[in-house]
Amino acid sequence: MNDLSAYMQPTQLCDFDTSRAVRDKAAELDKDSPDAQETYRRLCSFVKELPYGLEDWDLRASETLAKAWGMCCGKTNLLVALCRACGIPARYRVFRIRAESKLLTWIAEQQGAGVFGAPPPEQDHLDCEAFVSGLWAVFDPSRDTGMERGLLKLSIPLEREIVGGPDGREEVLLLDTIDGWARRRQENRRFKEEREALFEVMNRHLDRLRDIGREG
Q: Which CATH number is 61's domain given?
């Protein structure tokens, strides 16, 4: 691939150009790295271990870094921003996955009430793809290790199933920016009223899931 310039640019949400904090974190993680592969590994590891939690879709990378947790969209956007700040071309992969029904069922059972309603059959998901050593390398930074350990202890699968198109093939949208997509997704989000209260409830149970992952 000859022209990677589109995957190096800042945007309003991928704001490494205007955020000193994002650039400083990128420089810290890149320090003394022998090559781009090692830098990418460090960036992926850092973003992955930020706790996963539900939030809005249209957050800037600097906002996710400042609060040190995020959803798949926010964490992926931060990873892309850090990559670009380190000179590594990176882009977004957007696709649909089967709803994580077992996880949602567990949360509903903990809550003891049907405040969330029936889960949708599908949901949007994002991850990152960076161009390293001549190849595109995919990484999903959304789930932190503590969350994954909790899921395994509850026998909830870690695998995500990508929803296929009419011909059965996986449909993945590759984007150099998610600014427009994230804002449209935010406008059409499932929970619009009292969403912050719902986020608080859901995230409290996700913290409990991490506690389970640390037990015994």
A: 3.10.620.30
